[in-house]
């Protein structure tokens, strides 16, 4: 599935719709360059899950947990990860194989430990289509979750 957005608000709203339909145990991977909108999208997902706390990219921690929504929400940003060992240290498998929702910014950096079945989201810019244009590709959603 491919969606085009032309503002941060639209990307946020797409995240809200995904968050509203998210199912226990799902792992969402989020890839795309710095500043492309991964955190904006994530903030939408959190809102869709009913989380009222502000969500920002954790700078000095790999994971931030939010318990106040419809399902536990585990927001990973692995941009600064040095070694996969750091994921072992936080006990990542309890999150990846638990009953909450995992969303991983920069998931491509930890490819080797990702579960087999993830919902992958890639956000890209296209300079020819303007500053605020984003192409968002989502793979792995079931048809009933995709509309
Ligand atoms: P990332 O987490 O991928 O590094 P952020 O979500 O922190 O990126 O920042 C994205 C930036 O791009 C924000 O400043 C946002 O306002 C801007 N932006 C412009 N157009 C869009 C769009 N269509 N979707 C998402 N963000 C956009
Ligand atoms: Mg970010």
Structure description:
This protein is about 25% helix and about 25% strand. It has about 150 residues and is of the alpha/beta class. A seven-stranded mixed beta sheet has the order 1-7-6-2-5-4-3. The model has no long low-confidence stretch (mean pLDDT about 95). The structure holds adenosine-5'-diphosphate and magnesium ion.
Q: In a few lines, what is going on in this structure?
A:
With 147 residues, the chain is α/β, with parallel strands linked by helices. It has helices spanning 8-21, 38-48, 85-89, 92-96, and strands at 2-5, 27-31, 63-66, 73-77, 101-105, 119-124, 134-139.
What is the topology?
Blueprint: E1 2-5, H1 8-21, E2 27-31, H2 38-48, E3 63-66, E4 73-77, H3 85-89, H4 92-96, E5 101-105, E6 119-124, E7 134-139
Parallel strand pairs: 2-5, 2-6, 4-5
Antiparallel strand pairs: 1-7, 3-4, 6-7
Helix pairs in contact: 1-2
The structure holds adenosine-5'-diphosphate and magnesium ion (MG).
The site of adenosine-5'-diphosphate has 17 residues, from helix 1 and helix 2.
Family: Belongs to the TsaE family.
Main location: cytoplasm
Subcellular location: Cytoplasm
- The order of strands across the largest sheet is 1-7-6-2-5-4-3
Proportion of residues in extended strands: 15-25%
**What small molecules are bound in this structure?**
adenosine-5'-diphosphate, magnesium ion
- N- and C-termini, Cα separation: 10 Å
| Approximate shape | globular
Give the tally of β-strands. Answer: 7
Number of helices: 4
- Listing every helix as H and every strand as E from the N terminus to the C terminus, the arrangement reads EHEHEEHHEEE
**What about the largest sheet?**
7 strands, mixed
């Amino acid at each position: 599935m491919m969606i085009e957005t032309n503002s941060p608000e639209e990307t946020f709203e797409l995240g809200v719709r995904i968050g509203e339909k998210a199912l226990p145990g799902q792992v969402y991977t989020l890839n795309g360059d710095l500043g492309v909108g991964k955190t904006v999208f994530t903030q939408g997902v959190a809102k869709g899950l009913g989380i009222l706390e502000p969500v920002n990219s954790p700078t000095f921690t790999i994971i931030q947990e939010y318990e106040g929504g419809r399902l536990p929400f585990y927001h990973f940003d692995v941009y600064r990860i040095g070694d996969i060992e750091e994921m072992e240290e936080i006990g990542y498998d309890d999150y990846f194989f638990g009953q909450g929702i995992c969303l991983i910014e920069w998931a491509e950096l930890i490819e080797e430990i990702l579960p087999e079945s993830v919902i992958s989201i890639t956000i890209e810019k296209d300079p020819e289509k303007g500053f605020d244009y984003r192409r968002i590709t989502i793979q792995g959603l079931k048809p009933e979750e995709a509309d």
